[in-house]
Amino acid sequence: MENRMIVRVPGDKSISQRALILATLAEGESRLRGVLPSADPRSTAAALRALGADIPPLPADGAEIRVQGRGLGGLTPPEAPLDLGNSGTGTRLLLGVLAAQSFSSVVDGDDSLRSRPMARVTDPLGAMGARFEWLGAHGRLPLRVLGGPIGGIEYDLPVASAQVKSALLLAGVAGRVPVGLTEPGVSRDHTERMLRGCGVSVITHVRDDAGRRVELRDPPTRLTPLDIDVPGDLSSAAFVLLAGLLGVAPSGVTVEGVGLNPTRNGVLPLFERMGARLEVEPAGEAAGEPVGRITARPGPLRSIAVDESDVTLAVDEIPSVAIAAVRAPGRTRIRGARELRVKETDRIRALVVNLRALGVEVEEVDDGLDVVGTDAPLSGTVDPFDDHRIAMVFGVLGAQPGNAIEVLDPGCVEVSFPGFWSLLQELRDG
Ligand SMILES: O=C(O)C1=C[C@@H](OP(=O)(O)O)[C@@H](O)[C@H](O)C1
Ligand SMILES: C=C(OP(=O)(O)O)C(=O)O
Questions:
Q1: What is the DSSP letter of 11?
Q2: Which CATH number belongs to the domain containing residue 306 in this structure?
Q3: SS3 of 266, please?
Q4: Alpha-carbon span 202 to 374, nearest angstrom
Q5: Could you tell me if residue 308 is inside a domain?
Q6: Total of domains in the chain
Q7: Per-residue confidence (pLDDT) for residue 273, from 0 to 100
Q8: Ligand 2 touching residue 91 (CB < 6 A)
């Protein structure tokens, strides 16, 4: 009989942070189960508490927390700069909320977050009438948000970005003004789904050119509270599935209770195009999101070509695809992935530098990389450059039988996936 492991991954990071923000803005008590207890949601929760939110500590086991909402006008001025740590999502979504408050606030983060572009959010918020002061380099944190009344906006996003889209929708909600957006591609729609769960009408149209239009026509006067189970994080599950495909878990692995949102699950068709033995079994909904089980079994992989439309649906999983490509004979070409250069680190560069250090043939291009598959055993030391996802993909590659890879700074996985290393060990032990 097949001795396949069945595991769960912690709650979705994107959904957890949105739930904390919307529960704070709602009227009444929200009940949130399965909130991810990792560094990023903790930073977002701490920033919200500094704005007057009543959020208990995030329990390590994802047990239910109850959040007493402050209502749309109920946030209070923070006494100190808000430290969003490493979280791009927490920062950009909160900038939308803060832009419409009647007080000023300062937003800051760690060195990684200070290096990431913020004008993609402050430019359109500025067009709504919001005012900002850069306290360091232009376009980077730290940043002062001079809150005040804002107007509505009609905006074409230059890149498909759920963080930009969400910041503008939240500004519309907090400032009670209409927002109409078009996106050049599809980005994750968790904010739209969760706002609907709070009783807000958000209209989405899929356009002929595959882009999207999102409208908040009737800004709400109040948000109803949430009562949700946060699905398992598909981005975390991707590392477990990669371990299944690469034979780290010799009989394969099943991840249960994981989110299957179609605007987010593009890694699954990419793995399938590589010949991966995947089985996806939908099993209902949680938090307004489709959820289910995914099984990955080891088997031969083949090289593929990845383009920009693939990347937007799998933006955080491209490192996993690049690592799968290491074991796919031939040349895998990844293009249209420029956005990876502005994540927690420059992920294209980090992949190229570290794969090269292990002896894998790679080529770096402006918007992506080529990876040439090999069956050689791989050994060496990897620097994740303080990026949780880079640490985890090389952790999985290192766990493949025959490889010996040391990941420096393994603790950086705490940003999104507490328990990653012990789960990886369990998969190896079968
Ligand atoms: O909205 C979100 O929760 C996220 C959106 C994506 O970023 P962009 O909006 O910059 O594409 C993604 O990379 C990030 O991990 C989470
Ligand atoms: C890019 C990521 O997160 P954020 O932008 O929220 O820092 C990520 O988790 O891969």
A1: B
A2: 3.65.10.10
A3: coil
A4: 47
A5: yes
A6: 2
A7: 98
A8: no
Q: Confirm whether residue 88 is marked as ligand binding.
A: yes
pLDDT bracket for residue 1 (50, 70, 90): low
What is the distance in A from the centroid of ligand 2 to the CA of 143? 19
For the record, the structure tokens of 128 come out as: 């709504």
Q: Which of 102, 120, 233 is nearest to 167 (CA)?
A: 120
- How many whole angstroms from 382 Cα to the centroid of ligand 1? 25
Q: Per-residue confidence at 352, pLDDT binned at 50, 70, 90? A: very high
Answer yes or no: is 182 within a domain.
yes
Residue 54 catalytic?
A: no
Per-residue pLDDT averaged across 403-407, rounded? 98
Is the minimum distance from the CB of 289 to ligand 2 under 6 angstroms?
no
State CA 164 to chain mean position distance: 13
The answer to whether residues 419 and 323 belong to one domain is: yes
Query: What digits encode the pLDDT tens for the residues 126-149?
Result: 999 999 999 999 999 999 999 999
CA–centroid distance, residue 284 to ligand 1 (Å): 24
Q: Are 335 and 367 in contact (CB under 8 A)?
A: yes
Q: Closest ligand 2 atom to the C-alpha of 387?
A: 10
Sheet containing strand 362-365, strands side by side:
305-306, 331-334, 368-372, 362-365
Model confidence at 206: pLDDT above 90: no
Residue 116 known to bind ligand: yes
- Is 163 assigned to a binding site? yes
158 token code pair: 């230059």
Q: Is 182 in the same domain as 92?
A: yes
* Given 229, 316, 370, 386, the catalytic residue: 316
- Residue of the CA atom closest to atom 2 of ligand 2: 343
| 343 is an annotated ligand-binding site residue | yes
Indicate whether 212 pLDDT > 70: yes
Ligand 1 near 89 CB (within 6 A)? yes
Complex prediction ipTM: 0.99
DSSP of 283-311, one letter per residue?
Answer: EEEETTEEEEEEEEE-------EE-HHHH
